[in-house]
Write a structure and sequence with these properties.
Radius of gyration: 34 Å
Number of strands: 12
Strand order of the largest sheet: 10-9-8-7-4-3-2-11
Largest sheet: 8 strands, parallel
Distance between the termini: 108 Å
Number of helices: 17
Length: 418
Amino acid sequence: MRRPLVHALLVLLLVISAVPAILGSAPTHRSMAVAIVTPSPAASASPALATTPAPTVDLRPAPLSLDMAVGQMMAASFGGPSVTDGLRHLILDQKVGTVLIFGDNFTDAASLGRLTAELQALGREAGLPAPLLVAVDEEGGRVMRVHDGVAALPSQVEVGAGGPQAVRQAVANTAAGLHTLGIQLDLAPVADLRTNPADGVIGDRSYGGDASVVGPLVAAAVTGLHDGGVGATLKHFPGLGGAAGDPHAAMPTDGESLEQWTATQARSFQAGIDAGADAVMTTAVVVPGLDPTGTPAVFSRAIVTGLLRDRLNFEGVIVTDGLGMGGITTLYGLPDATVAAVRAGNDLVLLNSADAAYQASAIESVKQQVRAGVIPMEQVQASAARVIALRARWPRWAPSLMDVSSTEPVVDLALSRR
């Protein structure tokens, strides 16, 4: 009895174990397999979500107000060894971003260092988009605003006799002192060719009269300034030294043709541009061969934009000569001269006056012309961007700022301060 019973139980167990194989896999296992290899309905229900592009990020600088944009195009001056209330107003309220200093604004290296530090503090208080730019005329020889705290620099004709390497080293030594004192831009070197013995302003300020000699010396000076940590300005475009007279007293006229200019003055300026000059200064000289209307070069769009910007492909800051020179003031008041300079294509205007109210009136005149559409907003945007980019390249306190020259800020015509 016991053996048949055991046998029956074994047969029953074998039948039960075979049932899954006969019936197939459990439904739950099948559904799990499908769940693994098939996307869920939620993931495929809305194809529009899969094709929506990623949001773009606007990398442009914040828009500049009209006050801020025009202010970056202006360089103020002041009289005496202390920052005046008028200069404070120009920086804090008119948003002026550049100050040109002269010998009467300081007494020694220590006072100059304090002055530049105070100017930078005002620039930060004003919320300027880059460190305030402090500029000076430091050519060498008889045009030296700063003596204490910098290496002596002979005239260009004297130092140029030693060749390009001597020029580079001498200029770098002086520039290093300027940088230490808080100067970011030197209104030098002189790129003019002296070809007229009756020239009343250039003389030994030029490296000479032969473009093939002067060009390499101008380039060496630009490099030397950069070695010392200071920006370089070529002057006086389209070239003095070929005309009799002095624009500080009266407007000179140069009779050279476009062909003559291309073979002479243009070559020395081109050499400096190719060396990386940060700025080029336009000046008060009438050159009918370059602009048949007889408009002084600094106010001539044909010369400032047509020749310098377009023909020589200069992409940096175009800065005016001082608008307080006698050759200009006998023909133009400061407001009209400032508007004319901007319309010609200058990016930075040297107002060159100790009268802060007069400078402010000139700045307001430019804003009025922008509001009226006479000066295009886009031009103001581009000029402000170039000046800001220059200031970002040569800061004393800010080690690295974005170069905005390739992305122009948008000018908001609202007059609210930034």
